[in-house]
Amino acid sequence: MSAIARHSYRRFANASAAALLLSAAVVGLTSTPASAHGLSEIVRSSKGCGWPSGGYTTQDSRSAVNRKGTKYGKVYLLRSSKYGQHCVVTLKSSWHGTATFTQAVLYYRSSGSGAEGNVEDNGRYGHYAAVAGLTSGQCVRFYGAISSGGHGGPLAQGSRNTWGNCR
Asked: What is the pTM of this model?
């Protein structure tokens, strides 16, 4: 292979490698509908709570209902003492398998300083939204929502607005 051909090949290989890395990064940032169906699968999933050991307790749960009282799913507050985290899972029962707006929010407040914050997961998911956060020394509350997917479609919500489960 001539020096010119080697130089062109190397430049092509470097450009191809860069394009492949960029594609992988874009795919990694793109939200894909989660596909686990049960809480134990969601707890272990990296797109769920991300607790590979699978150990957790359910501390609270609320039905996600719309204004008319129609249930679209359930919102769970889970706790892993091993990981020192809480996780909120919004699990769909309506439009299961169809990508519609689904949201899970974990609110936390320091029991010492009173500083507040939140972490959330939302997107067009087919089965659930889930978010976990380090909550040692924190009190928590939670919120979940599911939409029917239509423009301006009914929104079902489930939440606990009071602080609790302080650790």
From this structure: 0.76
